[in-house]
Design brief:
Helices cover 0% and strands 49% of the residues. Strands 2, 4, 5, 6, 9, 10 and 11 form a 7-stranded mixed sheet that branches. The chain is mainly beta. It is globular, with a radius of gyration of 13 Å.
């Protein structure tokens, strides 16, 4: 049974940083593409960052150079380091897993498993 549990969200002022964590069970990182996606009120869910089984990463243009996705396979945990946050980053952030390894950052429907989300709020 796959379980994904996010943590680390909160409220921060613009320019600040947060580090999100996603504790997983039932996921084998070497066979699964992992991603962070977010959804702001009134907007569609969008891919933020993903990391494939080989550790290759990709990012949405809006977060490149500011966000870093990483994983600790020994601890079965996915991370998202978010720096230089701005109010447009305010959203619910979700951890997701794609066992089919299509690793399509722009296709949220390709991720079969999701966490419950953690809220990130950035004030100006």
């Amino acid at each position: 049974q796959v379980q994904l549990v996010e943590s680390g969200g909160g409220s921060v002022q613009a320019g600040g940083s947060l580090r999100l964590s996603c504790a997983t069970s039932g996921v084998t990182f070497r066979r699964t593409c992992m991603a962070w996606l977010r959804q702001a009120p009134g907007k569609e869910r969008e891919g933020v960052a993903r990391i494939d089984p080989n550790g290759r990463t990709s990012y949405a243009d809006s977060v490149k150079g500011r966000f870093t996705v990483s994983k600790d396979s020994a601890a079965n945990t996915l991370f998202l380091q978010m720096n230089t946050l701005n109010p447009e980053d305010t959203a619910m952030y979700y951890c997701a897993a794609d066992p089919s390894v299509r690793c399509l950052l722009g296709r949220s429907e390709s991720y079969a498993y999701w966490g419950q989300g953690t809220q990130v709020t950035v004030s100006s």
